[in-house]
Amino acid sequence: MTVTRRIALLGAGAALATPLASPALAQAGFPNRTIRLIVPWAPGGTTDVVFRVLATAATRELGQNVVVENRGGAGGVLGAQFLASTQARPDGYTLSQSHMGTIRQPFMRRSLSYDPVNDITYIIRLSGYMFGMVVKASSPWRDWASFAAHARANPDRLTHGSSGVGSDGHVFSHIVFDSAGMKLQHVPFRGIADALTALHAGQIDCVGDGSGWAPGVESGDFRLLNVWTEERSPRFPAAPTLKELGMNMAFTAPFGVSGPKGMDPGIVRVLHDAFHKALMDPAHLEIMRRYDLPMGYMNTADYTAFIRGEAQKERDLVARLGLVVE
Q1: Is there a contact between 38 and 95 (Cβ–Cβ < 8 Å)?
Q2: Which has the closest alpha carbon to 195: 212, 171, 214?
Q3: 173: which of 208, 236, 249, 280 fits an S-S bond (Cβ 3.0–4.6 Å)?
């Protein structure tokens, strides 16, 4: 199977094709109180760290506190699920990270009744992740070839962790293993930090996920077997890409900020502009560099169109891989 998924990178200078603020909005003086930004992962992982820096920068731009609220578990879908519920008012004061899992999960779970296209307002696309696979440094596997050979000789004996059922790490790992003729047992966690803690403790054999593993690789706790980008990472130049290992695939996973459906276009514009400036804030750019996050900016209109296109791809992917979990 050949699967290629790339972020279409757009420069920071792309046109901001979003509606102008309405007179009513200007009179309302949005925002005039704290904004809640849901991070649908456990504290301590890559996304949590990055969004806390982003929230600090957005606070300066908006003049009101942007407070991160962690809602980990369920494959990272709890933020989108709350936005699509009747509890979330479309007033701009409740937002969430949106990611590919929030599009994919409704096609996997019968219990999720929200429409990932029409029940959420997509405000701005920000970035993506560098994915890769790590094992514990003290493990017997020195490289991908030795790990793959062991896994093929021992089907369903090795375990791999991810940040949740249906998360990007889970799905992409599934595709990688399938392409390499390997079968591993999946162990889901509430977030990447929990998965890496389990790996460090020897409770699982590998983790395939976003670059939250990078500090552990640099400290010598983990060994990076491969990266899933188109080209080798400048930070980890010794790690081969999947393509170099004979698998014609690459994976990134764009994410952004979203809100409930029915938001005032003027509020969307205010939030878009503030988060765009926060995206380009030096502190945020530095944290992106630290975690090898590629720039993936899209304005409101382009991000919404992107989501519509990806939703059909995700539906097809779920059906092809048989990822229905309920």
Answers
A1: yes
A2: 212
A3: 208
CA within 13 Å, CB half, 92? 23
Token readout for 263 is: 């938001």
What pLDDT score was predicted for residue 28? 62
Q: What CA–CA distance (Å, rounded) separates 326 from 323?
A: 9
Determine how β-strand 185-188 pairs with β-strand 94-98. unpaired
Q: What are phi and psi of 100, to 5 degrees?
A: -65, -30
Two tokens, residue 107: 């096609």
pLDDT of residue 258: 98
Strand partners, 186: 160
Position 88, amino acid: A
Q: Report which of residues 37 and 22 the model is more confident about.
A: 37
* Residues contacting residue 162 through CB under 8 Å, at least 6 positions apart: 169, 170, 173, 186, 187, 188, 189, 192, 195, 207, 208, 209
3-state secondary structure of 36: strand
Q: Distance between CA 118 and CA 309 in Å, rounded?
A: 13
